[in-house]
Amino acid sequence: MNNPITLVDVSGKPAREQAFWPTVVLRRAQIEAEIERLASIDRPADGRRASSVNHPMNSGPIPAFAPGIDVQIVVLKPGEESTPVVRNSSGVEMCIRGSGVVTIGSKEFRIEKFDVWNTPSMRPQVVRNDGNDLLVRLSYSNAPLLERLEVHFVDNAPDLVASTGTVAAAADQHRARDAAKPIPIGAEGAQLLGYEWLVDIETVDSKALHWPWKEVSPHLQTVYNMELGYTGRHLYVLYNPATERRIGTSPSFFATIAKLPAGKVDRPHRHTSAAINYIMWGHGRSSVNGQKAEWEEGDLHFSAPGWSIHNHASREQGCTVLTVQDHPLHIANESLLWQETLKSPILKLGTDFGIQTNLSEIQE
Fold first, then answer.
1. Cα 305–310–316 angle (5° rounding)?
2. Which pLDDT does position 162 carry in this prediction?
């Protein structure tokens, strides 16, 4: 490089004001038109007809709908299947039209409309359309974050030999770190650990999990029937145990499905995690940093730019919404700030004692 390193004096400088991306809605008509356009083009070499939803404020290096989240509309015609790709980004997917079969590593399962599944890092995924209609899915990943860090690994011709480095395979092996005994420092838990601890971390089995809509949807009636005075959200998290205390669907994201009763109005709140809503049924409105947005079935809404004050409200019939939010990523970074109401304290979730709802009261 020809550019010399520079030193920048930041003594006494105030913190940079954060630039929130404004809320935007990709309308159902736009999504449906793009699906038909993708279906009309020649099949790409990798079998992946896809469009990435790009926020107008995104400056790259790849398309993104939130600063660290991409959403792709992926289309397969009947009889087609995608070519396996291995990458170190992970994600969440939802089928929004058609049906087919997903194979991730050695696991295979059928998908239908509104089924959700997670895609673990470094596991090849193949999606096959064995139906008579287009198979369309929304694919969310943390690729924009990894691209900004210049560490996004993508292998379009992976060796599909199964890895032997699984949790089960390693359970009975002698480990070098057994000889690298921790050295206590002080009396509060600080330690010195040898190199072996850096490169032989305790493992958590990251599985591809599937949430079929036909099994999930009956449970949503429970939250739909909860009274309007409930102070929490009318939703369930699609929980992946591999995310442990981060309460995620993938290591970076949670996916929730909410079913709001008619006339439900959230209290204005904010959190550092970004949120993207896909409206599965119904309609409603949002206010984000004072900007109003109306949305309805089939729309895709960038609904909560990080730390923006926002709230949502359902209309006459209520609504069902898939929300993808980078909540687990922030818990891992110790950066998940949450303010449940504008009069509430700002909490660092995962360290501070969390927000309490009135669930026990309304169940009495």
1. 120
2. 45
Here the tokens at position 19 are: 């630039």
Rounded CA-CA distance 241/234 in Å is: 21
Quickly name the fold that domain 210-349 has. Jelly Rolls (2.60.120)
Q: Has residue 39 got a pLDDT over 60?
A: yes
Question: What is the fold, at CATH topology level, of the domain defined by 24-154?
Answer: Jelly Rolls (2.60.120)
Nearest in space to 52 (alpha carbons), one of 70, 30, 75, 27: 70
Sign of CA dihedral 44, 50, 51, 52: negative
Helical residues (DSSP H) of the chain, grouped into ranges: 28-40, 143-148, 167-170, 195-199, 213-224, 327-333, 359-363
CA distances from 179 to 137, 172, 176, 195, 344 (A): 48, 16, 6, 11, 49
Span(s) in the chain for CATH 2.60.120.10: 24-154, 210-349
Confidence (pLDDT) at 340 = 95
